[in-house]
Amino acid sequence: MQRNVIVLTLAILTLGTASRPAAQLPDVDRFEISVEVLPTSQAEFQLLRRETPETYTCRASVGPAGEKKAFFAPKLVLLPGEHRSATQNAGPYSATFSVSINKPTDRADVSVDVTKNGVLVARQRSTLWLANPSR
């Protein structure tokens, strides 16, 4: 009996958290875009504690302005001197997150482009000055 309840609960949770079809995504007039760049050693809890002194974890969050939910939440891990990009899609929307960290590790150039049906609807470009904890 208990096993059946657990399986049913998991099935209900799975159905409830399935991604929404494109038709259910709201039409968004304004986007809220936030970015974060941290040394990976200072990022979220790591299941297996490991030293990662040279990498940076970069995150973006893109969603409707004034709401806490995000359509997109890409994450990139970079070494100094690298450039990486990630693109995520949700219905008619697409977000591209790009990050470059310079070799001296004192600056990150970040961009987020949001398109709807291929037309640019929001763009954020930022330069973040990094505090190097090893200095």
Features:
135 residues; elongated; single chain; mainly beta; 7 strands; disordered N terminus; three-stranded antiparallel sheet
Helix content estimate? 10-25%
What is the total tally of β strands? 7
Number of domains: 1
What Rg, in angstroms, do the CA atoms define? 18 Å
Measured distance between first and last alpha carbons: 59 Å
Q: What is the average of the pLDDT values? A: 79
What structural class do you assign from the helix and strand content?
A: mainly beta
Q: Which residues form runs of ≥5 with pLDDT under 50?
A: 1-23
Please report which band the strand proportion falls in: under 5%, 5-15%, 15-25%, 25-35%, 35-45% or over 45%.
Answer: 35-45%
Main β-sheet description: 4 strands, antiparallel
- Going across the major beta sheet, what is the strand order? 4-5-6-7
User: SSE order in H/E notation?
Assistant: HEEEEEEE
- Please report the number of helical segments: 1
Mass-distribution shape: elongated
